[in-house]
Design brief:
heterodimer, A: 160 residues, alpha/beta, Mannitol-specific EII, Chain A, 5 strands, B: 91 residues, alpha+beta, Histidine-containing Protein, Chain: A, globular
Chain lengths: 160, 91
Amino acid sequence: MQLTKLFAAQDLLVNFRPGDKWEAITQMLDHLCESGRIPADAAEAAREAVLAREQSMSTGMEHGIAIPHGAVEGLEEIAACMGIVGGDEGLPFDSIDGGPARLIVVLVIPRDQKLLHIRTLADVARALTKEAVREALLESETSDDAWGILARNEAGAELA
Amino acid sequence: MGGHEQRAKIVNPEGLHARPCHAVVSLVREYESVLRIRNGATEVNGRSILELMTLSANCGDELVLRAEGEDALALLEALTALIAAGFIEND
């Protein structure tokens, strides 16, 4: 799935400044619930699934990317948002490379859609392995700017 | 071209999602050898969890593992065992 379809502009949270990784995940899930992307009757299951997955093993990866995620029943389509961490320090995330997280992608995935799960992780990883995309997202001042970066990347534009 | 090559089929029902990618990278980082992993036309660095996720490998897909270095054979043996065991995952 293209990231411009996975995320609406409003799901790209610029200058995101949570106190720690758990607050980050909670705030992003709250955003998805408030915007209706996660229906009210799946909200608690989503929270439990994503937090339990994170507690079992950090989803902090490399290059400042973290992808907290979980699978739940009662969801028709994937719910996703991205926190673009403000400031220079990033957020400690127990990442595999030891670095702080700067781009946090929360994914809540319908439990019965295993192929969608793998494909969506691949699509997010494919975009964010590009340093130019990461840098441009971190410099975005508005959600619309950030969404425009994803759109330009999908159109094959070079991001300076 | 040097190095050793081995094939390994993904057997866990969930495929190569984030946790198996983490398990692979954690294992590979215990070795010195360079590792490339291919699924179909896509080949990536076996030390990068993000790159591994881009393989989008599902249950039944066969990966081609190519290692170069002094401990290449030991790495391939450990890695094929991990993949054959379904990454020993329970979720």
